[in-house]
Amino acid sequence: MRHWARFLYSAARRLSALSSVTVAVAIATIQPAFAYIGPGLGVGLIATLAGIVGTVALLLAGIVYFPIKRALKRAKSERAESVGGVAEDSHTPPQV
Prior knowledge:
Layout: H1 3-28, H2 39-83
C-alpha cells in the first residue's frame, strides 16, 4: 500500500473513533429543552410538510401522466389514419 493511501486510511479510522466518542459524550450529557412550540409554529410546520408532500406527488403524477397522454394521443391519431380519416389533431386546413 502506498504511503498516502496508508495515511488516508489511518486518518479515516481516527476520525471515525473521534466521531464515535463525540456522539457518545453528546448523548450522555443530553438535557431536556424546556421549549414551547406554539400553535402558529405547529400549523406552519404542517403546512410546510403538506406543501412538500404535495409537490412530490404532483411531480410524480406529471412524470407518469404526460408520457401516457402522449402515447394515447399517438394511438388515437394512428387509429384515425388507419381508418382513412385524418387525425383530429393534425394541422391541415379544412377543404373549401
